């Protein structure tokens, strides 16, 4: 679904009814807390749960990095790469950073 559809119709309380996806405090990407809530029309970087790897399609997405100790995402800078990412000063569990291919 598109970002607007996810915000309006998602079955997840963390997303449904919001005006926009949360952005990380220390990284230029949006927080997508569920793999079925990945917006189909977002052009920037997105942080998704590691369970995304089970559904990963290399023709659709580019993996650009991850949080915590596995290294800094390629081409991007995390202020606190060793500590991961946070939203509203709350640490978020490990995230894989992805971008759509072709949009």
In short:
By secondary structure, the chain is mainly beta.
Descriptive report:
The longest helix is centred in the N-terminal third of the chain and has 7 residues, at 3-9. A four-stranded mixed beta sheet has the order 1-2-6-3, with no helix packed on it. Strands 4-5 form a two-stranded antiparallel sheet. The model is unreliable at 70-82 (pLDDT under 50). It has one helix spanning 3-9, and strands at 30-31, 46-49, 61-66, 85-87, 90-92, 95-100. Strand 4 and strand 5 form a beta hairpin. The chain has one domain (3-100). It is 7% helix and 23% strand. The chain contains one helix and six strands. The protein starts with a helix and ends with a strand. It is mostly beta strands and 103 residues long.
- Give the neighbour order of strands across the main sheet: 1-2-6-3
Helix content: under 10%
Count of helical regions = 1
Q: Could you tell me the number of beta strands?
A: 6
Q: Separation of termini? A: 15 Å
| Share in β-strands | 15-25%
**Main sheet summary:** 4 strands, mixed
**What's the Cα radius of gyration?**
13 Å
Query: What's the number of domains?
Result: 1
Specify the overall morphology. globular
Please identify the structural class as seen in this structure. mainly beta
Low-confidence stretches: 70-82
What is the string of helix and strand elements? HEEEEEE
Mean pLDDT: 85
